[in-house]
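Box 4.2: Ligand-aware structure prediction
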Amino acid sequence: MARMLLLCSWMAFIMAMALAAFSTQADAARAFFVFGDSLVDNGNNNYLVTTARADSPPYGIDYPTHHPTGRFSNGRNIPDFISERIGSEPTLPYLSPELNGERLLVGANFASAGIGILNDTGIQFINIIRMFRQLEYFQEYQQRVAGLIGEEGARQLVDQALVLITVGGNDFVNNYFLVPFSARSRQYSLPDYVKYLISEYEKLLQRLYDLGARRVLVTGTGPLGCVPAELAMRSPSGQCAAELQRAAALFNPQLVQMLGRLNSRIGADVFIGVNTQQMHNDFIDNPQAYGFVTSKVACCGQGLYNGLGLCTPLSNLCPDRDLYAFWDAFHPSEKANALIVQQILSGTSSYMHPMNLSTIMALDSRN
Ligand SMILES: *[C@@H]1O[C@H](CO)[C@@H](O)[C@H](O)[C@H]1NC(C)=O
Ligand SMILES: *[C@@H]1O[C@H](CO)[C@@H](O)[C@H](O)[C@H]1NC(C)=O
């Protein structure tokens, strides 16, 4: 009798293990697509004639290869940590010649540093992949995958995929506030500009849905006025720059409302709001609690707060990158990226709305 019980529980154990192995395999098969700007670009701009690039040292100094890759970080970025969490390889830049054959099935990264919601954002960077073009590439990608695994296979791969989109910060930093009396700031008051951005963003997200995306993490903008570049240029006292803070404070809640509108129109939680503002504010309010010595000074740069100009081989470089929330004047360090993804994975509803990535993965593995 005891032996029978033991056998039964042993069999139950084996079945549970087999199920677990099956479900991790299903997770590993989930494709991942990334859209947006430099916060999530994995190297597309390396293939373009543009000044918005991160393909020379010391970028990548802490990446596993210790070489620059085009990521705007000392090491891995937010998409890399998400790939790790869903159990897949990092996505390749869509423009990479290595992205072909079976590797297409992992997904793709369409993001391009410098772009914004609007086409006229980042014009100074010349040749970058604007949002409408990233979405055209997504369509082209799906045709290539259909050639590999058939139309139905491609449709399913996209249907079950996870998507990340990070865009909007540049519409302020590299457009409205780029120069005093910019064209957009003469055209719109800040609240009206934010309304316009949200309405254009809504069209882009609707298009992403129409192209088959069904689980989309949408990040808000960080506290734009607190990055080392803005402290150096606008607020030497070290207080976060007021007008950019106001922009983020207007934009983020309206973004969450817009995602709610889209979801209720669709009748499903397709779009998940990621409160990057709160995640960054945590570091800014109490850097020591996260193991940072500062959240005001960039690790790589020069001038006040190391926030002026670009991060180049001639810049000041901090010896321990993990002690800095900001790698360069605008972009988080690898350590900060890891902490952000931890919140994406398991944050409460004030960070992830309406649910976190763990909940999404649990829900989607049941379907
Ligand atoms: C951006 O440019 C593309 C191509 O010219 C165009 O189709 C699209 O409507 C433009 N988007 C906006 C918001 O103006
Ligand atoms: C987020 O994820 C964790 C699992 O890591 C879960 O326990 C928690 O309840 C989730 N929080 C919310 C608010 O969904």
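In the box above, the bound molecule is 2-acetamido-2-deoxy-beta-D-glucopyranose. Residues 346, 348-349, 355-356, 358-359 surround 2-acetamido-2-deoxy-beta-D-glucopyranose (ligand 2) (CB under 6 Å).
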